[in-house]
Amino acid sequence: MKIAKDAVDLLYDILVADTNVASTISGDLYKFNTRPIGSTKTDIVINLLTASDGIIQPGIANINIFAANKAIPGSIAVQYVPDVDSISAGVKSVIGALGEDKGIAKDSVKIYVSKVSNILPNGDINESYVNIKTTLEFHNQIYKN
Fold it and tell me: What is the tens place of the pLDDT at every residue in 53-104?
């Protein structure tokens, strides 16, 4: 049976190995909310939301792409807007690494992107992010004793 760490490690290894992902982010990849507080770079964070047990073990993981907002000088004040280009490039590279709309199979796991959010503000922090919801299916084998 697989645990949360197994799923996050698998997604992390896939994204780290993909050169397109590395070239589209200015920061780094992180697991389980270990992204440094105050990061101003474009970073990717992987978390597992749910995982069940059984012969076929489904799970849902979040892959969040964060980027600092851009400052746009205005006539009255500076306005901060999402860095759409950086976030979009990160989203495209992650989706590409995970097989676009077909998904991928690695060892005994099927992985596919099930949902991509709009660009969202990250609370009161001057940054935005996109959430990529990823479905994993671990296919465990039955062994007779």
Answer: 777 788 899 999 999 999 999 889 998 999 999 999 999 999 999 998 888 8
What is the set of domains in the chain, with CATH numbers?
4-139 (3.30.70.1700)
Range 69-78 contact pairs with CB under 8 angstroms and sequence separation of 24 or more: 69/126, 69/127, 69/128
Residue 55 to residue 123: CA distance in whole angstroms: 39
Q: Is the model's pTM score more than 0.85?
A: yes
Task: Cite the DSSP H helix spans in 25-126.
Answer: 84-97
Q: In one letter, which amino acid is 24?
A: T
Q: Is the dihedral of CA 111, 117, 118, 121 positive or negative?
A: negative
The whole-angstrom separation of Cα 87 and Cα 129 is: 7
Q: Give the HSE-up count for residue 3: Cα atoms under 13 Å, Cβ half-sphere.
A: 1
